[in-house]
Amino acid sequence: MKKLLTIIFVFISVQCFGQIEDLFKYSTIYTSASINNSLFTQGVWKMEEGQLVDVTRDNPYDFSINIGIRKLARFEYQKKKGDFYTGEEKEYSDKSIIGAVNGLEYKFQINTKRQQGREFENRHFLVRYLGDFYTIKAEQLFNGRADIKLQNIDTRLRLKIGNKINLTAGVMNAWRPLGYEYNAIEAYQETGSAWYQLAYDYGFQDQYWYYDGDQNGLDDWYDYYNWRWFDADGNHIAETDGEFYKYHFGNIAREYTLDVQDSLGMVRELSVALGASFYHYGERFWIHAFGDVYPKRWLEEVDQEILDHIELDNDRLDYSLGFILGAKIGRMKKLGVFIEGDYNKMYGREFFGLTGGLNYLIY
Question: Which residues contact 64 (CB under 8 A, 6 or more apart)?
């Protein structure tokens, strides 16, 4: 984190020269907060001493808090959504190494969120400088919900062909967790350890109980039995294994996975970076398409002890694609069509998004 920020600010100081006084010109500092009720939880009941007892867990309310500063030029097809920035804006074009204008752009945002009872933090720091013959993009992404943690500095030469096409070539330095190649839960299960042993390891305890159906004071083979569960502070959190597994074990598995990932540390990759982008804007039709491919990489030396647990794929092909397309059809331009999305295959993980639709104006 400190290394990335140091490089970013050194780059700003060296490259921007007389633009330093304009560093914050046209930038926007923003903050926002939202709150709403969580999703409805399906009712859960149990039998206790001959009575049905409601043990439904009510998730606390959802909330989202954003704070940030941004200076990102909009392409001609982009319109500001409302009068204010909230931090919830998502633009596929932000992933392109070629921005809308030459010069320095940036975005620093921190988001704290609770969703369906789970709290997490997201961070996105982005600095992009576009020159006539080169471009540099530095980015740090931490997605607490998806457990994604990445840092990279992408430096390339730029060849501009006319006003529509850009070709880029260079290298990308990336730092990311080694644990992406390691399925911690699968490896844990292969050891033969029971799932509840993992809960014990994180401070949870269970207590055997049974329902004495015929009231004879004996734990007969036909009596119903189960285990109550308590957290590390001794609080009763579940009446049965099933309730504990449904509501709590997933968080334990996630925490264990993150702990293993942190124990393996980060690895640095140096990759060949090639890219292309095409941009056309007209009153009736516009298209913005961009793609990057990383066909070759070199990894820093990794301890053999770690390699015993994971298998690094140095020959994988990473790539990222994105596009935005819009059209207004007819003499009066009443019908509008749009489609936008991206597809990414990076570090052995795939993630994508796609949005499309029709608009028809009646007047």
Answer: 32, 33, 34, 35, 88, 111, 112, 113, 114
Residue 332 in tokens: 């009066």
**Model confidence pLDDT, tens digit, residues 270-290:** 999 999 999 999 989 999 999
**Position 17, amino acid:** F
Task: Classify 47 as helix, strand or coil.
Answer: strand
Q: For the CA atoms of the chain, what is the radius of gyration?
A: 26
How far apart CA 40 and CA 333 sit, in angstroms, is: 42
pTM of the full structure: 0.74
**Residues 344 and 321 sit within 8 Å (Cβ to Cβ):** yes
Residue with tokens 């850009």: 166
How do beta strands 285-294 and 266-281 pair? Answer: antiparallel
Beta strands in the chain (DSSP E): 28-36, 45-48, 51-54, 62-71, 103-115, 118-130, 134-143, 148-161, 165-177, 205-211, 224-230, 236-238, 266-281, 285-294, 297-299, 318-329, 335-346, 349-360
* Residue whose tokens read 């004996």: 218
Supply the DSSP string of 165-188, one letter for each residue: EEEEEEEEEEEEEGGGG--HHHHH
DSSP secondary structure code for residue 90 in this structure:
-
What mean pLDDT, rounded, does the chain reach? 85
